[in-house]
Amino acid sequence: MAGGRGSRLGIDVEKPLLSFRGRPLVEHVLSALEGAAGVERIYAATSPRNSGTTRYLIARGVEVLLTPGSGYVEDLRMALSALGRGPVLVAAADLPLLTPGEVEEVLGEYRRQDAPALSTMVPLSLFRRYGLTPTLTIGELVPAGVNVVDSRNLEGEERIYITENIRLAVNVNRPEDLKKAEEVRRLLNANKQRTP
């Protein structure tokens, strides 16, 4: 999902093209999807509000689904209806710490569930622990930007998958989120180096 303008960022750059560690945000997500086992094809849903992102993705060789830009949920439903090909992993274009491991984690959980949709959530306590600010909360949970939906059954039952994987919690909606993403990345790298 790469159709957002990123108005909360207060900058004149389309959010998917915003640079994190020298690469556009959407490039981090594409790399994670391309490296994940179980991902067969990649489509990007864009909107008229981000023509630069659309051009970037087309030049990158990504199949683009142009949505009207009516909002995340509306555009997602349109993109899924256009695909109509079964289970679709949906990833937001603003997840700079996403790796193939997280994509495979969500796909694996979907395969274990007996429902047409899987909504990935992160505990609010994890956001507090890392000093992150959620955009939306549902009780004590925060929706993550990676989910799976059977595009042939959009009204079907949805299961909730709760994970404490911080990489699924870090997204970019405000200018300070880029700084927080870098802080979390450094912390994860430092912890990995300390692990025997």
Please, could you describe this protein's structure?
The chain has 196 residues and is α/β, with parallel strands linked by helices. The chain has one domain: Alpha-Beta Complex (Spore Coat Polysaccharide Biosynthesis Protein SpsA, Chain A). The chain has 6 helices and 9 strands. It has helices spanning 25-35, 51-60, 72-83, 100-112, 124-130, 175-194, and strands spanning 19-20, 23-24, 43-46, 63-66, 87-91, 117-123, 141-143, 146-150, 158-162. The strands form 3 sheets. Strands 5, 6, 7, 8 and 9 form a 5-stranded mixed beta sheet that branches. Strands 1-2 form a two-stranded antiparallel ribbon. It has a two-stranded parallel ribbon with strand order 3-4. Strand 3 (43-46), helix 2 (51-60) and strand 4 form a beta-alpha-beta unit. Helix 1 (25-35) crosses helix 4. The longest helix is centred in the last third of the chain and has 20 residues, at 175-194. The radius of gyration is 16 Å and the shape is globular. The mean pLDDT is 89.
